[in-house]
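Predicting holo structure, NAP bound.
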Amino acid sequence: MSCKVALIGTGVMGQAVLRSVVEHTGADQVRVHDVRTEAGRKVAQEHKVMWAETVGAAGAGAEVVIVAVKPHDVSGVLAELGPVLTDSTVVVSIAAGVSTARMAEHLPEGTVTVRVMPNTPALIGQGVSVLSPGPHATEEHLGLVRDLMAGTGFVTSVAENYQDVVTAISGSGPAYVFYLIDALAEAAVLGGLGRDLALELARRTVAGAGAMAAESADHPVVLRERVSSPGGTTMAALAELDDRAVRAAVVAAAQRAWERAGELGQG
Ligand SMILES: NC(=O)c1ccc[n+]([C@@H]2O[C@H](COP(=O)([O-])OP(=O)(O)OC[C@H]3O[C@@H](n4cnc5c(N)ncnc54)[C@H](OP(=O)(O)O)[C@@H]3O)[C@@H](O)[C@H]2O)c1
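Done. Tokens:
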């Protein structure tokens, strides 16, 4: 049976990517491998894709190999893949901070590489995936990867030198939003609401506002002004956020995240 796409690593993000790949190619074109054989086999069964016993067996003959292991495991996986790749195999990594230059150190000369930063809402098809081509990747290669990632949500591309910033915004961003949901729910409990209702109000408010911001042609500032009557409750809250420099804190937090991505990329 032919295998167009191999996936190495069937953890959280691997499964999100797998769903999208299967949607695009059909399950019979996909082979997966994970060192956690029991869990990996279960994922293969759930998605009705082929299981491979080794990294090499998964990658042999594949048109695209997607590496979805933790950053410190990437070099070992690439070293195992090297001998089984064809001249035209595209090697995709979703590992945070691992540059295509670092990937090339473990791959045969001239291997086509693409780096992708997805985020966890990809699990429900509402993610953001940002692609960067390695030195040998053409528009056609990027298009191929874009199609495979389409089921994860919004897909776009940037020059690789912006990937650390992308990691800080869309990669880590869902965690900042979950933090906001938790803080809002905590405030609701402080105001006397029961915990279940507090959490329901917080998560649905963030989901609704997020959907509105995504769909509306208006800038978020305009959307914010529409719910901020002069002298009203929302203005009082926003003034408090400004007094506490929350906007500056968000910018500083993102900046810290992209510095950290750079540090991880070195090691
Ligand atoms: N989670 C996110 O929000 C997010 C967002 C964007 C990008 N990413 C990137 O996505 C990658 C995967 O993250 P994740 O959260 O999905 O990790 P994960 O859940 O730990 O999944 C990785 C899987 O790969 C396995 N593995 C390790 N070495 C392997 C090898 N040599 N061959 C085959 N399988 C191997 C791991 O097994 P062991 O656990 O036994 O090592 C684990 O089952 C990371 O590089 C991360 O930077 C994550």
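The chain is about 55% helix and 15% strand.
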